[in-house]
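Sample 1 of the test manifest.
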Amino acid sequence: MSTSISSLTPYFIVKNARVAIDFYGRAFGAEELFRMTDPRDGRIGHAELKIGESTVMIADEYPDFGALSPDTIGGSPVTFHLATLAVDADLARAVDAGAVALRAAADQGYGERVAMVVDPFGHRWMLSQKIEDVALEEMQRRWNEQTGA
Amino acid sequence: MSTSISSLTPYFIVKNARVAIDFYGRAFGAEELFRMTDPRDGRIGHAELKIGESTVMIADEYPDFGALSPDTIGGSPVTFHLATLAVDADLARAVDAGAVALRAAADQGYGERVAMVVDPFGHRWMLSQKIEDVALEEMQRRWNEQTGA
């Protein structure tokens, strides 16, 4: 039985979406496509951003609907993986904008140079630049070797 | 200054990724593209799934790297928005597979019929079917009207 699902878009919650959207523009080049503003209190009820060729959805906290930010929950079980052609430059830009580096850029055995940051709103971002074509079997072989398995 | 970022892919953590991948296949038609298995203990260190035309990354918990599931953190500040052509059927399928409906399918003023579920691993999914073309100004006008603003 097949589904009618055509696409998946991550929808993420922050405290102070207005400030966050500005931050994501400076940190990752996010472009705002549109926003809907709550007439009662000015919260952003829904906005869409373009990052590279991908779309993401963002909103302020709505606790009544279970929409809570990492600050309120205490972290996030989702990381946003960003494919980049220049991980060092893009890491520097994100940190300049106010992100905190959790892992410096480093080459990985699976053929990517990867860095990790957390943004001021508690979301985690992985910047990843492909540096080598590695076949799946070779990736697993290197991992086994690393661990002595 | 522009970035070199080309795309964003959500990377999400679960407890027992092997069981979760099977669940996502039954619930949302997710197709496994590949997986890397930890030679030390059989955890899935990285796997990629296709849902509709979108790719997502999934792994087991790696607490040493801050990779924690919703069970451990106590929720998620990210919802996965699924565009579907048949929200009622796809909601029924997800619930059959073991998801719990948080909101029944209902028509929304912004032109979509929307339902929300939480899966057995603590991640939230929004199923959304477009039912009407609504211009942005009209969306905002309806919201203002609803709230008496």
